[in-house]
Design brief:
homotetramer, about 210 residues, mainly alpha, 9 helices
């Protein structure tokens, strides 16, 4: 299995998941409310669309950054990646739940945003599992990684996991702040990058 | 991040968004109207499908024309592009709103077509932001651009923005003319092209 | 615009359209009929899925055969291809209409299958328009085509168009036979191929 | 038709089918149940999502393993592959049926899981048909296959087919065990691989 093929399939799944988010935006069939009112009532869906789009978009960037470190795909990595895709591809569902929760408010909002945060915890764990595998397994990665780079990357993944767990708790205090918080964590990940991958060797060039 | 990868992901999102448009075409479950009547009642959906398909299709062409000018993708460009995809991928929603508005008529139609036009304004702004960034940032673009080409491109983007703002206003006068107007602006963009990109250098060839 | 890019986008749209066909297969929410009964009642949807899947699949093969003849993509060809994608991507809708028509029977079935056949006529016209353009415009095609090959290809496209028009009429006699007929015409197109494309020149190899 | 093109189209269809699985996860519009209750009630949908995601993901891996043996694509192989895609792309439907069956329980659950198992039998047959064609037709495969490899591969496909037929029967005893069983068979296929493909020749490298 070439890296390019795994990346192309992953890109496809991410592109589809990010585009399917729009399907949660729709008018209610047969509603007698005016369109203007219906559009206004759906602000939670717009916010959820915005946050999840940014989240998946940045995951796409980070997925590539991760696989820049990979020189060889074995079966374990293939299935770790499949697990990651499974939890990312499901994201349109908690996104829709979060929007409906915010529309309803009260306890429904809290449960909905907790669900959304839990999905992000699972994604963070799936990303971490891949990273640990890449760092630990000698034949997989492009080049040995310096001890300081290893520490930096562990700090980065731990920070994300802690943030998502905190957001799980925040869901019970302020659901709307929780959703916005997920957007902010995504922006953090957009700037706090993985250590640079080594220059790609000849096999890498061939594969891409 | 290679240009080819950014383009492939963008192509994927655009291909999915353009194909999802068909999901707004459907018979009403459990309706006792004849199929012929239901098909006839849905003419606004056909018109909206046609216009949005052409709009996204031409955006796809122009997206490539834009990135022909790019020699190097940095993080800012990555996120500007993500913002553009966000507003294009949402288009099936205002398309569906526009069709429902035209079916209902009256104020609903005006609000619906204003919403559709607003979405196009956002897309035009996102395209302009990318263009300004490419033209201004020296390391990004393939080759320096002549002053006359710069003026031509600014004229082009400004014309589009003005047209979309006019269509926002027209929505309150004639919703149906507004929708047709969007189709015509798309056709304008099909013919009024960006200045030719310079011949691609060796890196470009390698990337594609 | 490289040929490879146009083909990749077209492949994407066709792959999505063919996969979206499954969305018309679903149980009725809240129905108190047994699942077995609901599954049995949906036989028209299975037949429509089967026929449209084969139809789009073979269109995908023929789309490639068509573009094997193309050495250079100009703007007219780009928009002719966009028109073709527009009518193919809409096919999940008449497929769903055909299935609902067969479930209802009577006049609804006749109108539904006429609609399905009309969509195929439009697709046939869009394919023919591209072919005529490729054959006529000297700079577009790979190599000059022999007079006998030109006649063979015109015969092939004409046969399809006549068949679809006949199926438009058959819809008013036997809707179910009409749907099966579309499957048979697709199989005809699977075997009655375009004349072989000339061996690809060096530019072609580079592009793919 | 290059192998790479057939694989890219197949990858696209599989990526879309695997991502569409999420559309069966949704809250019920207008339900007055709490979101927490609705989320809890949907456990069969989560299980069905998990199993079908793993099933399609591993089919994707095995599809590539299969085509590693192919040196040349002819028309028969093209249509055998189209048949395989047809039965895989339909999988979101029996997945949704299985989830609804488990929610209802009783006879509905049995019929639903029998349907799901039947879909898997069809997929197994489609895979076997391609494999038999590759092994038998001399010009198609990369290299002659040893008699022991042939026996191993026949054993592998037969084991799968027997397992799916057993699961068809198990559906009438324990629907939930049947669904889990499908996940286990997929994991079996993840580890029990096809014999290694021969090293790819120069044409293969060029194609990918």
């Amino acid at each position: 299995m070439k890296i390019a093929r795994l990346e192309a399939f992953s890109d496809g799944v991410l592109a589809i998941a990010i585009t399917l988010l729009v399907l949660d935006l729709h008018l209610t069939d047969g509603s007698d409310k005016s369109i203007g009112r219906q559009l206004a009532d759906q602000w939670p869906s717009y916010l959820a669309y915005l946050v999840s789009f940014v989240v998946i978009g940045i995951m796409w960037v980070n997925h590539h950054a991760l696989f820049q470190h990979v020189a060889h795909v074995d079966r374990a990595l293939l299935f770790l990646n499949l697990g990651l895709l499974l939890v990312i591809a499901v994201l349109p569902f908690p996104t829709s739940v979060a929007a409906e929760g915010l529309r309803r408010g009260g306890n429904d909002a809290r449960v909905a945003l907790f669900t959304y945060s839990l999905a992000q915890v699972l994604i963070a764990l799936a990303f971490s599992a891949i990273w640990v595998y890449i760092v630990r397994k000698p034949g997989i990665r492009q080049q040995p990684m310096s001890a300081s780079d290893q520490r930096a990357s562990i700090r980065r993944f731990s920070a994300g996991l802690v943030a998502y767990l905190l957001l799980c708790g925040l869901a019970f205090v302020s659901p709307i702040a929780t959703l916005i918080g997920h957007g902010l964590v995504a922006v953090y990940y957009a700037f706090e990058q993985l250590p640079d991958a080594p220059l790609a060797g000849p096999e890498r060039h061939q594969a891409s």
